[in-house]
Amino acid sequence: MSATELPSRQQVEDLLYKEAALLDEWRLEEWLELLAEDAIYEIPPTDVPEGDSRNTLFIVADDAVRIRSRVKQLLGKSAWAENPHSRTRRMIANVRVLGSDGENILVTANFAVHRMRYESVDTYIGHYDYKLLRRGNDLRIRERRVILDNEALRPHGKISFIL
Amino acid sequence: MDKSTESYIIDDQDAGLFRVNRRAFTDPECLQEERRRIFDKCWIYVGHESEVPHAGDYRSRNAAGRPMILVRGDDSVARVLLNTCTHRGAMVCRQNSGNAKTFQCPYHAWTYNSRGQLVGVPGEDSYSDAFKRDDLGLAAPPQVDNYRGFIFACFDPAAESLYDYLAGAREYLDLVADQSELGMKIVAGQQSYSARANWKLLMENSYDGYHGLPTHQRYFSFLSDIGIDFKGNNLGAPVRQKTVDLGNGHAVLEYQSAWGRPIAHWVPPFGEHRKEHFEQLRRRFDDRFGPERARRICETSRNLGIFPNLVINDIMAITVRTFFPVSPDYMEVNAWALAPIEESAADSKLRLDNFLTFLGPGGFATPDDVEMLESCQRGFANREVAWSDISRGMKREHPSITDELQMRAFWRRWNQLMTTPQIRRARKAA
Predict the structure, then answer these.
(1) Of B97, B218, B360, the CB nearest to A59
(2) Which has the closest alpha carbon to A75: A21, A31, A10?
(3) Smallest CA–CA separation between B134 and chain A, in Å?
(4) CA B381, CA B367: separation in Å to the nearest integer?
(5) pTM value?
(6) Is A69 close to B367, i.e. CB distance below 8 A?
(7) Distance between B87 CA and the closest CA of chain A, angstroms
(8) Positions in chain B short of pLDDT 50
C-alpha cells in the first residue's frame, strides 16, 4: 500500500474520534502514539489564521520536542493552569479527506471544544487541518494545525490544554 | 468601613511596610476613577509605527477604552484617529487592518481621507453656511507622540510631553530599540487574549521576579529538557541584576539572562551551526556601542513596565503587551512580538520559537500566570482579608529582582493619581 493511498472517511473518522477521546480523557501519552516522529502542532493567531509560523507570531507552534515537553508538563504537577485538569469535550464533524500532497494525506474537520473549569464554560470553535501518514495499516498524524474561528481568545484567556 | 476614610495603600517607609487595599482590585467605583484619573490622564500605548509602514496602512485599536485607528496618512505621518463618525457616531473603520485611501461611514456615507479630514458629505448643499467641513474631521486624542517607534496617545491636553513622561524608561526603550540598525518591527500576528482578573494584577505579574520559580517550574523543566543549565547560571548574582524605579510609576528588572536571546546571545540549544553567526552579531554590537553597553543589550533581560498598562519584556524574545480593564475583574490583553527589521528568516524563526516556549496564551508560562491572577481575583472574594502585602525588600539598600520595589513604584504613582485632591475638585467643578 503506498504511503499516500487515500484512506476512507471512516478510517479517518476513527482516528480523529479516538484522538478526541484520548485528549478529553487526558490520556496524553497514548495520544503521542498517534503522532509521527517529526509531528508538528500549530495554532495560528486569530488575526492571521493562514499565517506561517516561521514569520508570524502563533499561539502554539510546537515541533516534536516541544509537543512531548508540553505533554510531560501537562501530566506533571506544575502546569498550574491545568492542575487540576480542565474538563473538556470535543465534537468533531464535517470530516473530509481532501487528497494527497504527494507525501501526506490531507484531511480537514470541524471542531467545537468546550472547556469547563471553575464553573465557567469556554468554547473553542474552528477547524483542524491534518497531514497524515500511513504506517502499515494505521494512520499517523504528521501535522496538526488548529485554526480557530474565534476572533480572539476572549474570555478564554489561554489555551492550556491540547486543543 | 466608610470608603471615604479608607486609603488605598499603606506606605510606611520607616517600618518597611507596604500594603495595598484589595478594594483597588474589586471595586467598580475604583475602576470608574481609574478611567478618569489614569487612562484619561496618562500617555497610553496605541501601537508601533512599523505596523503601518505605507501611506494608507491602518490598524484598528482599542486603547484607553476607546476604538481608535492607527493610520499612516498620504503625507507619511502616522496618526491616531478616534473611530467615530463626527456626524452621528458610527465607526468609520470596520476592518482590523488594511490599506485605504479613505474611510467612508457606512451610515450616511461621510468620507474621510487618511489624514482624517472630512472630504465627502453627500448632499452638502442642504447644510447652512455655518457647516464647515474643516471642523468635522475625525477627532484625535489631544496629544499623540512617538518614542523610537512606540506610538502613544494622551487625552489630557495639559499633560507633560511623552519624552518627559517616559522619564527613566527611555533608557530601557533605547536598549530595545538599539537592537536594530534599521529599526524594530512588530511581527505579523497578534495574541489577543484576556484574564478574568483586575488589570493591575497583570502589571504586577509582568515584572515580578519573585513568582518565577514557583509559578514557572514548568518552563524551567523545559529548559532543562533542552539542555540549558539555568541553576548554574548567575541569574541571582547581585552584580548582574537590579530593579529600578524609573519615575512616573515606571520600573524595570534587569538581569543576566538564564536563557538564550536571539539577539547575539547564543546557547547550545540554538545549534552549533549558529554559534559563529551569533558571535559575529555580537562583535557588531561591541563595535557600535562598546563592550559594556553591548553586553547589556545582548546578554541581559529586562522586564519593563511603563505606567499604567504597557509591558515590554525583552527576555528570551521581546513581547509588547498592553491591557485594559473591561470590568474590575476582567481585562483584555493584546500582545505582539518585536524584532529587528533586518533579522534573517532563520533568526526570526528562532526568535518566534523562543517566544512561544514561554510567552503567550499557549506558551509554557503565560497560562500559568493567567491562572495565578485569576486565582488572586477569586481569592479577593474573602473581603475580610482587606490588604495585600507588597513590602518585600523594602528596607534593602539594593533591592533584588525578587523584591517588590517595582510594584511599589507603580502603586505609589497610581495612588497619587487616584487621590490627589486637585483632580477631584476640578472634576466636581466641571
Answers:
(1) B360
(2) A31
(3) 35
(4) 22
(5) 0.94
(6) no
(7) 29
(8) 1, 234-237, 430
User: Residue holding cell 494525506?
Assistant: A105
Q: For residue B169, which of B19, B314, B334 has the smallest C-alpha distance?
A: B314
For the stretch A39-53, pLDDT in tens is 999 999 999 999 999
Question: What does the pLDDT read at residue B230?
Answer: 63
CB contact under 8 A, A56 and B96: no
CA B335 to chain centre: 8
Rounded to a whole number, what is the distance in Å from the CA of B187 to chain A's nearest CA?
6
Nearest to B221 among A54, A73, A156 (CB): A73
**Residue B175: in which H helix or E strand, if any?**
helix B169-177
Q: Mutate which of A73, A80, A122, A145 to disrupt the B interface (most B C-beta within 10 Å)?
A: A80
Helix (H) or strand (E) holding B68: strand B66-72
The ipTM is 0.94
Answer for the pair A20, A13: CB distance below 8 angstroms, yes or no.
Answer: no
Inter-chain touch B370–A79, beta carbons under 8 Å: no
SS (H, E, C) B310-332: EEEEECCCEEEEEEEEEECCEEE
Cα B150 versus chain centre, distance = 10
Name the strands in the sheet holding B9-12, side by side, starting at the edge strand that comes first in the sequence.
B9-12, B17-21, B387-389
Contacting residues of B for A44, CB less than 8 Å apart = 189
Please, are residues B110 and B121 in contact by the beta-carbon 8 Å criterion? yes
Please report the pLDDT score of residue B239 as a whole number. Answer: 55
Measured from the Cβ of residue B221, the count of other Cβ atoms closer than 10 Å reads 16
Q: Which residues fall within 8 angstroms of residue B213, CB to CB, at 6 or more apart?
A: B220
Ranking A14-28, A90-104, B247-261 by mean pLDDT, the lowest is B247-261
DSSP assigned state of A7: P
- pLDDT for position B199: 98
Contact list, A75 vs chain B (CB under 8 Å): none
Quick one: cell of A62? 510546537
pLDDT of residue B115: 97
- Judged by CB atoms closer than 8 Å, whether chains meet at B370 and A59 is answered as no
* B228 min Cα distance to partner chain A (Å): 14
Chains A & B: contacts with CB separation below 8 Å: 141
Sheet arrangement for strand A105-117: A60-62, A35-43, A138-148, A120-135, A105-117, A87-100
pLDDT at B1: 47
What sign for the dihedral angle of Cα B212, B213, B217, B222?
positive
